[in-house]
Amino acid sequence: MGMNQVRIAIDGQALDVPAGISVAAAIAQLRLPFRRSVGGQPRTAFCGMGVCFECRVRIDGIAQQRACMVPVREGMQVLTDG
Amino acid sequence: MAEHYDIVIVGAGPAGLAAAEAALGQGARVAWLDAQVTAGGQVWRKDVRYGWPRRVESIVAKLLDHPNATWMPQTQVIAAEQNALLLQDERQALGVTYGALILAAGARELLLPFPGWTLPGVTGAGGLQALAKQGWPLSGRRVVIAGSGPLLLAAAATAKRHGAQVLGIYEQASQAAVHGFARTLWRWPGKALQAAALRCELAGTPYRCGSIVARATGNDALQLIEVDGPNGVQRIECELLAVGYGLVPNVELAQMLGCAMKREAAHPYVAVDDSQRTSIANVYAAGELCGIGGRDCAWLEGRIAGLAATGSAIEASLLRQQRLARRFAANLREHFKLNPCIHDLADPDTLICRCEDVPLRALENFDDARSAKLATRCGMGACQGRVCGTALAELGRFPRSGQRPPLFPARLSTLGDLPSPSDTEGLF
Ligand code: FES
């Protein structure tokens, strides 16, 4: 594939992923839930296109980011709400 | 300070790209924006592994290079007033003013509730396709695709390309309806070719008609689904289920601008004339926004809007092709009509509002969205009712209510720039 890798951290765990993938795709590699719903259920990305907000996580300190809309960047710190 | 453009285009799918190309060809100064990081929209979403189709790549490259074009990625419209928009990108809020505005916001999936639809592992059908193209790991995963329409085939093909084991495609329309549709395809040779190519790519993948996913189960993640088909209920173990019941237009911005709407069944779309003019002066709409019409239709209408918005002549052949594309869409809609029993899949405990975890049972005693929202918080969450409001309209519960600014959850610093405070009254 010849894709460059970038290193990010998800919930403190370092992860090398192909450049250009979304934060959602990166989180999916670890098979983590993205968030807990108000009733405590685990949720993951659902619509894939920025509509449902099920994929929201904290990225570099900013909460409520839709992981399916944001590409990974070197050094990115992602916190799920799982 | 708001930057001025002759033409501002919202949405960079086929309609937006065609509009930009046409307007630039007439010498206009154009700003084109999209909420996504790359152009292409959903149907031409760039695949991190396989890139764009070559044609799309060259269209986008030309626009990115054009001296009169300003590309604004990851940008959303937060609020609008006459001839001006308040935008928000990854870093900042910015204002733009325009001579003409072309709305090309496309469509989203019709996602309908059924028991288990909130489990991790359940996505939309177009949703799974979008996630696959973003690099979602699918290699070796057992995937079932279900719902309705040709999008299921496209989603299955993408999933396979990314290494998924597609166990089956379950189409709700009856076999008779799907065959009836196939028999009309000769009238649209381009479509027939596309269908044939997809069929080749999906050789060996079961395609079952008259089949509906009635339930998904699993502990904390999807494990098993129940498919109700012509031969009874079938249980299938899988890790991913992608279900989409077609598309609905993203009309929120057009609604906020006050554009007149029409309705296709329960879902509003923007009313336009032959030149893609909406009811609001200097505001045009093209593509899925004007009723689900598909990619080719979007491209043609985008071009028409780009020409009309720059005061240029529109070739008769363009209008002819557009009408043909609209007829194709009507034909498709007719054959893939939803089986009404899909409206009854949710049971009283099924969560309808995924943002606020509101079950169907809590909504039983309301007959309009507003009172249900005030009492149960249904539709109050981050998605602003885009999923549950659309589903409830489809289920025949409540009609969609109009959108008020901000159109997307906005940062406080952006809201400080909102044109008039009265617009946001009662929102926070
Ligand atoms: S998956 Fe729906 S917004 Fe990201």
TrEMBL record, chain B:
<dbReference type="InterPro" id="IPR051691">
    <property type="entry name" value="Metab_Enz_Cyan_OpOx_G3PDH"/>
</dbReference>
<dbReference type="InterPro" id="IPR017224">
    <property type="entry name" value="Opine_Oxase_asu/HCN_bsu"/>
</dbReference>
<feature type="region of interest" description="Disordered">
    <location>
        <begin position="409"/>
        <end position="428"/>
    </location>
</feature>
<feature type="domain" description="FAD/NAD(P)-binding">
    <location>
        <begin position="5"/>
        <end position="290"/>
    </location>
</feature>
<dbReference type="GO" id="GO:0016491">
    <property type="term" value="F:oxidoreductase activity"/>
</dbReference>
<dbReference type="InterPro" id="IPR036188">
    <property type="entry name" value="FAD/NAD-bd_sf"/>
</dbReference>
<protein>
    <submittedName>
        <fullName>Oxidoreductase</fullName>
    </submittedName>
</protein>
<dbReference type="InterPro" id="IPR023753">
    <property type="entry name" value="FAD/NAD-binding_dom"/>
</dbReference>
<keyword id="KW-0560">Oxidoreductase</keyword>
<dbReference type="InterPro" id="IPR041854">
    <property type="entry name" value="BFD-like_2Fe2S-bd_dom_sf"/>
</dbReference>
<dbReference type="Pfam" id="PF07992">
    <property type="entry name" value="Pyr_redox_2"/>
</dbReference>
